[in-house]
C-alpha cells in the first residue's frame, strides 16, 4: 500500500498538476492548493453563511480505478493517487498514516477519512461520458454508490511524496463512508444554490433549511 503520485493546484481547476511532493498542514489541507483552509473552499458553496467546516482538505484516489478508464494521476483532481489501498471500503474516521520506508510510523503525516468524493458533472466536461464510470446505480437507475475517491482532513502535517508507504488505522467502530448532503441533494434533483441562497441573505426560510441539513459539507 503506497503513494503512486501527488498533485496540487492553486486555482480551482478540475485537474491538478503532479509534483515531487506535497505538504500537508494540520487542520488546513495541502499547502498551495485551492481547497486549503478550515472552511469549505468549493466555489459553489462560498456564499453559505456561516461557512461550513472543510471536510475535503485532501482528495485521495485509487490508481486502479483511474487506470481502468485511462485517466492519469491528478487528472481527476485528486491530491494523492494511491496504489494497493481499497480506499472505497474504508470506514469513516479511518486514519491514513504516510511514512517513509526507513522511518517510524509515529512521525508521518496523517489524514483522517471523512467521506466519499462526489463524481460531479465536471468529469464529463473533462471527458464526455466519463462521469458514469464513477457511479453505481440500482435497477431503477438511482445512484447507490460512488467511486470517485475519498476525502479527508489533515490530522498531522508533513510532506507526502511518491513511494511512501500508507499505513491504514481503522476506527474502533466501522461506519460506512457516505457522500455529503450536497451530492444527496443533487441525486434527488434539488438545486443547491436555490436552497442555500436564503441561508446567505437572511431569508425567513433559512433556519428551517439549516435544520434539515445534518451533514457537514464535503
Notable traits:
5 helices; about 25% strand; catalytic activity; pyridoxal phosphate binding; M1 Pyruvate Kinase, Domain 3; 8-stranded mixed β-sheet; disordered C terminus; about 220 residues; single chain; 3-stranded antiparallel β-sheet; about 15% helix; alpha+beta
What level of helicity do the residues show? 10-25%
Radius of gyration: 17 Å
Looking at the overall shape, the CATH architecture is Beta Barrel
What is the element string, with H for helices and E for strands? Answer: EEEEEHEEEHEEEEEHHH
Number of extended strands: 13
Q: What is the terminal separation in angstroms?
A: 25 Å
Shape: globular
What would the average pLDDT be, to the nearest integer? 81
Count of helical regions: 5
Structural class: alpha+beta
Strand content: 25-35%
- Could you please say which CATH topology applies here? M1 Pyruvate Kinase, Domain 3
> Briefly, what CATH class?
Mainly Beta
Fourth-tier CATH superfamily name: PK beta-barrel domain-like
Tell me about the largest β-sheet.
8 strands, mixed
Indicate how many domains the architecture comprises. 1
Q: Which stretches are poorly predicted, pLDDT < 50 over at least 5 residues? A: 184-201, 208-218
Instruction: Give the strand order of the largest sheet, numbering strands 1, 2, ... along the chain.
Output: 2-1-6-5-11-8-7-13
Explain the overall architecture:
- The chain is an alpha+beta fold.
- Helix 1 (about 65-70) links the parallel strand 5 and strand 6 (about 80-85).
- The strands form three sheets. It has an eight-stranded mixed sheet with strand order 2-1-6-5-11-8-7-13.
- It has one domain (about 1-210): M1 Pyruvate Kinase, Domain 3.
- The longest helix has 9 residues, at about 190-200.
- Mean pLDDT is about 80; it is low at about 185-200 and about 210-218.
- It contains five helices and 13 strands.
- This is MOSC.
- One of its GO terms (molecular function) is pyridoxal phosphate binding.
Amino acid at each position: 500500500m503506497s503513494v503512486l503520485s501527488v498533485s496540487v493546484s492553486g486555482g480551482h481547476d478540475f485537474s491538478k498538476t503532479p509534483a515531487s511532493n506535497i505538504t500537508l498542514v494540520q487542520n488546513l489541507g495541502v499547502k498551495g492548493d485551492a481547497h486549503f483552509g478550515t472552511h469549505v473552499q468549493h466555489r459553489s458553496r462560498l456564499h453559505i453563511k456561516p461557512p461550513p467546516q472543510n471536510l475535503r482538505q485532501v482528495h485521495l484516489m485509487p490508481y486502479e480505478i483511474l487506470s481502468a478508464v485511462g485517466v492519469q494521476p491528478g487528472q481527476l483532481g485528486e491530491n494523492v493517487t494511491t496504489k494497493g489501498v481499497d480506499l472505497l471500503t474504508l470506514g469513516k474516521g479511518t486514519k491514513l498514516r504516510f511514512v517513509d520506508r526507513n522511518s517510524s510510523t509515529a512521525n508521518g503525516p496523517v489524514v483522517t477519512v471523512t467521506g466519499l468524493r462526489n463524481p460531479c458533472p465536471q468529469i464529463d466536461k473533462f471527458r464526455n461520458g466519463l462521469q458514469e464510470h464513477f457511479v453505481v446505480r440500482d435497477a431503477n437507475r438511482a445512484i447507490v454508490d460512488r467511486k470517485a475517491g475519498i476525502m479527508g482532513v489533515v490530522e498531522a502535517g508533513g510532506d507526502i511524496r511518491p513511494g511512501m508507504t500508507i499505513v491504514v488505522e481503522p476506527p474502533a467502530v466501522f461506519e460506512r463512508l457516505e457522500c455529503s448532503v450536497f451530492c444527496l441533494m443533487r441525486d434527488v434533483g434539488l438545486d443547491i444554490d436555490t436552497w442555500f441562497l436564503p441561508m446567505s441573505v437572511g431569508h425567513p426560510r433559512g433556519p428551517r433549511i439549516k435544520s434539515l441539513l445534518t451533514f457537514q459539507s464535503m
